[in-house]
Amino acid sequence: MSDPKMRRPAARSRRSGGISSSRFVRRLRAQWAWRWDALLRRRKPSDGVLSVAALGTEAAILDSPRQAAEEQHTGLAAMAMPTLSSADSRGLFGRMLVLLTVVVVSFFVAILGISQIQNLRNQQVAFEDFRYELANATAPVYAADLNNKLLQTGTPVALLAIPSIGVNAVVVEGTTSDVTMWGPGHRRDTVIPGQEGVSVIYGRQFTYGATFNQISHLKKGDEITVTTGQGESKFAVDGIRYSDDPLPDAPQPGEGRLVLVSAYGSVPLIPDGIVRVDATLSGDANPTPLSEFSYAALGDEEQAMMGEARAWPYLALSLVVLVALALVFTLLRRFWGRWQTWIVAVPVFVATGIFATTQIATLFPNII
Q: Rounded to an integer, what distance in angstroms lies between the CA atom of residue 364 and that of residue 354?
């Protein structure tokens, strides 16, 4: 029986005559790396077997272990970071254009249509609140409440009726753009209608009820009735003033005057200027408490034809949310399907769009 030690050199000589083990491992690694790369690129080898030339090339490329690791890392990174094809990019761009178009159209629909519904609801709420206060004799009669604190903006202060142009509205305290969405707004530095002095009320021309849309059609002598916590007061129209017309004389002691302010113009949302209607109180003025709010205390946003700059951050946030929603629902469409995605997306887009439209309307002047 031969010694095993004598057979070991022969075994080594047989292996040295063929492919060495390290060379075989490199070729095997090259073959599997090539197949892995082909899988990542969604292509398969021609016949399932590498040609000798291809195998030699891959083996030569992958002779360096570091280079093989880098190629494998690149393939995994390509899988981890998906990219949009040119068709998907065009589709996404098209959806963005559609979204922009929907936002613009929705704005005009909301500002000229839905805003009227919102104003109707707001007026109903304000009317119920003011009727309760009238019944309990707690309706405000000057710029402070029963606790001697300034009235909060949006507080109902009067009922306004102009039969000749069909106006019946609740007047609320304040003249900023978000307040006049509720209805005509009483300028806070002026007296309550019916008291001695000048009372100024702002109203919108085209949006949110368009309460003062027809005040430029009022004629001298037309009657205006205002009901406050002090009772009912009647005014007779003196005339109409536009932006360049001279100011009327100051009211005499004991007299009361009402000034209605709005925008005028034939094109919606593009006013030509400001129109004012002057009306004189018929009869004696109601007792007039000392005003606790002066003209100097008014903010710029409370002047006629002014919007509120504070709405810009909310508008920017809502637009960012709309873009983010468009991206999210575009990706979810691949998992949920078209109709399932639309069922979920439409209510979310509508709610966000209404919020964005409200912010845009707040930026718009307070009397259009």
A: 15
Taking phi over 0 as left and psi of -120 to 50 as alpha, with beta for the rest, 120 belongs to alpha
- CATH pick for 117-305 out of 1.20.1730.10, 2.40.260.10, 1.10.490.10, 2.120.10.80: 2.40.260.10
**Can you spell out the DSSP letters for 278-347?**
EEEEESPPBP-PPPS--GGG--GGGSTT---GGGHHHHHHHHHHHHHHHHHHHHHHHHH-HHHHHHHHHH
pLDDT at residue 248 in the model: 92
- Give the DSSP H/E element, type plus range, for residue 44: none
Instruction: Report the predicted TM-score, pTM, of the whole model to 2 decimal places.
Output: 0.72
What confidence tens digit (pLDDT) does each residue in 278-300 have? 999 999 999 998 877 888 889 99
Give the pLDDT confidence score for residue 54 in this predicted structure: 46
Question: What mean pLDDT comes out for the span 253-274?
Answer: 93
Domain spans of the chain?
A: 22-77, 88-106+311-363, 117-305
29 vs 308 pLDDT, higher one: 308
Q: What is the maximal distance between C-alpha atoms in the chain?
A: 142
